């Protein structure tokens, strides 16, 4: 208790009146952005240095879409840590594993590749066949959910191909989580607390190699390191990001569901909101930065 009080006093001392006013303005701006979205939306933001937090519908359940691949990686690395799998083990691809025509799904039956590459493709290119393969190797959704529960993540769950979760899958799809829990899971990995320090380090490095960087990441300077994962299905667009900003790391998660705009163009309301929130948070935490997205970049997509 004394440690908790001391920590609170330290955070209070580092977060003064002017900072509180800026936080109020940030929350006001975020609420205005979110209120214009035609659908349900939630956001959670936390500065890892000062503890400054903004939470709007942060404990509401949302579909994970591909962001579920962060928990899948945790479950897989738990198996590796226990000695049941080896990260460098050679795997043999079988046609029975095929889910869609991503990179792994286009391999020929009998193709060989290391587990480390399958994990990389799951997190970096969000390869679905690779992800379902990793989910199975992790012991399935039940084993991953058990790890999540044991580590305090009680709202985040794998639904797909998981016994007893058919009703949840019908409502949320592959998985479900809240903006707060998903952001804090990424921070948990960053802090070296997920599975083990060495496992966390390896997982975090995988999450820092994101192919899909046209949403919130496009609003950050290219030299700034980030760990992230995004997810998108017709009526949901989401992203969780941990930014290594010059003046202190911050993590945030924006999630949507029941979106009226189901288009897949760059100007989709969900994609546009991800970019707007990413830009606003960078401006808040790095107010002296003069960096702006390069003009014309948006026409590449």
Describe this structure in words.
The chain is an alpha+beta fold and 301 residues long. 41% of the residues lie in helices and 16% in strands. The protein is built from ten helices and ten strands. It has a five-stranded antiparallel sheet, sandwiched between helices. The chain has a three-stranded antiparallel sheet with strand order 3-7-6. It has a two-stranded antiparallel ribbon with strand order 4-5. A hairpin with a 5-residue loop joins strand 1 and strand 2. Helix 2 (17-35) packs antiparallel against helix 10 (269-285). The longest helix has 19 residues, at 17-35. It catalyses: a beta-lactam + H2O = a substituted beta-amino acid.
Which tags fit this structure?
alpha+beta, 10 helices, Beta-lactamase, 301 residues
Compute the gyration radius: what is it?
19 Å
Spatial strand arrangement across the major sheet: 2-1-10-9-8
Our count of domains comes out at 2
CATH topology of the largest domain: Beta-lactamase
Q: Specify the overall morphology.
A: globular
Q: What would CATH call the architecture of the largest domain? A: 3-Layer(aba) Sandwich
Helix residue percentage: 40-55%
CATH domain class of the largest domain: Alpha Beta
- Can you give the mean pLDDT? 94
How far apart the termini lie comes to 52 Å
Q: Give the helices and strands as they follow along the chain.
A: HHEEEHEEHHHEHEHHEEEH
Q: Assess the beta-strand content as a share of residues.
A: 15-25%
Structural class: alpha+beta
Count the E strands.
10
What profile does the largest beta sheet have?
5 strands, antiparallel
Summed up, the helix count is 10
What is the CATH superfamily of the largest domain? DD-peptidase/beta-lactamase superfamily
Catalytic activity: a beta-lactam + H2O = a substituted beta-amino acid
GO molecular function: beta-lactamase activity
InterPro entries: Beta-lactam/transpept-like, Beta-lactam_cat, Beta-lactam_class-A
Protein name: Serine hydrolase
């Amino acid at each position: 208790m004394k440690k908790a009080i001391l920590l609170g006093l330290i955070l209070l001392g580092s977060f003064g009146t002017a900072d509180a006013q800026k936080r109020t303005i940030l929350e006001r701006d975020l609420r205005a952005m979110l209120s214009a979205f035609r659908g349900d939306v939630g956001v959670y933001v936390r500065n890892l240095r000062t503890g400054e937090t903004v939470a709007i519908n942060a404990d509401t359940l949302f579909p994970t879409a591909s962001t579920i691949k962060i928990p899948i990686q945790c479950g897989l690395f738990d198996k590796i840590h226990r000695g049941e799998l080896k990260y460098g083990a050679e795997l043999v691809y079988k046609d029975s594993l095929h889910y869609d025509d991503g990179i792994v799904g286009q391999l020929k039956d009998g193709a060989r590749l290391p587990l480390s590459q399958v994990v990389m493709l799951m997190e970096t290119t969000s390869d679905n066949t690779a992800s379902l393969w990793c989910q199975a190797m992790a012991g399935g959704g039940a084993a991953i959910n058990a790890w999540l529960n044991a580590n305090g993540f009680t709202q985040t769950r794998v639904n797909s191909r998981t016994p007893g979760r058919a009703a949840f899958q019908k409502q949320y799809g592959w998985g479900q989580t809240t903006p707060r829990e998903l952001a804090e899971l990424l921070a948990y990995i960053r802090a070296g607390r997920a599975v083990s320090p060495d496992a966390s380090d390896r997982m975090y490095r995988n999450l820092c190699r994101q192919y899909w960087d046209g949403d919130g990441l496009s609003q950050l300077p290219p030299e700034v390191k980030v760990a992230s994962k995004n997810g998108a299905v017709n009526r949901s667009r989401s992203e969780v990001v941990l930014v290594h900003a010059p003046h202190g790391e911050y993590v945030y998660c924006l999630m949507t569901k029941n979106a009226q705009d189901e288009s897949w163009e760059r100007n989709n309301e969900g994609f546009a909101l991800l970019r707007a929130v990413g830009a606003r948070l960078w401006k808040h935490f790095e107010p002296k930065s003069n960096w702006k997205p390069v003009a014309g970049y948006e026409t590449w997509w």
